[in-house]
Amino acid sequence: MSYHGPEGEGSFRMTLRLATLERYQVQAVDPVGRSLWGLDVSGERGLFLNHRARSSCVFQGSFDLSGVPLGPFPLLTLPALLLGRVPSAPASPPQTQGRESTFHDAADRIWTVDVAPDGSVESWTLAESGAPTVWFLR
User: Fold this and answer.
1) 98 in the Ramachandran plot: left (φ > 0), alpha (ψ -120 to 50) or beta?
2) φ, ψ for residue 33 (rounded to 5)?
């Protein structure tokens, strides 16, 4: 995974351990394998461990990611995001043209999704105020 945003840029590797739909863990390591952070979620409760700063945070329901305008982001939708699915639901029926679908979510953000012939998501883009802010590419 790579990040480019207001707080700088970098790359890291993530591992998702999905036990059930409501229980998972995520571990992030830098390119040489050093632990960066971990997330342990059970239901609506999450524990975030920042290994570099040696700090932790317990939270419930949803969270905001600094520099990533997806929030408030429900804890239980993170596995779907990491598995390549769109992390938001349409507030009204999507408009589809060929392989591309576009929809507005409950926060009136615009999502554009490119779906492969087998039904998997190839890419998605989140746009706010007409400008793309976050995107996913398989």
Assistant:
1) left
2) 95, 5
Nearest of 53, 61, 52, 57 to residue 22 by alpha carbon = 61
Q: Residue with structure tokens 């524990």?
A: 47
- To the question of pTM greater than 0.85 for the whole model, the response is no
**DSSP reduced 3-state for 105:** coil
Q: How far apart are CA 75 and CA 71, in angstroms?
A: 10
Q: Specify which residues 67 forms β-bridges with.
A: none
The number of CA neighbours under 13 Å toward the Cβ of 69 is 16
The one-digit pLDDT tens for each residue of the chain (138 residues) are 877 777 778 889 999 999 998 999 999 999 999 999 999 999 989 999 999 999 999 988 877 766 556 666 678 888 887 888 888 889 999 999 999 999 998 888 899 999 999 988 999 998 888 888 888 888
Output DSSP code: residue 94: P
**Which tokens belong to 113?**
């999704």
The whole-angstrom separation of Cα 29 and Cα 81 is 18
Cα 112 to Cα 103: distance, rounded to the nearest angstrom:
7
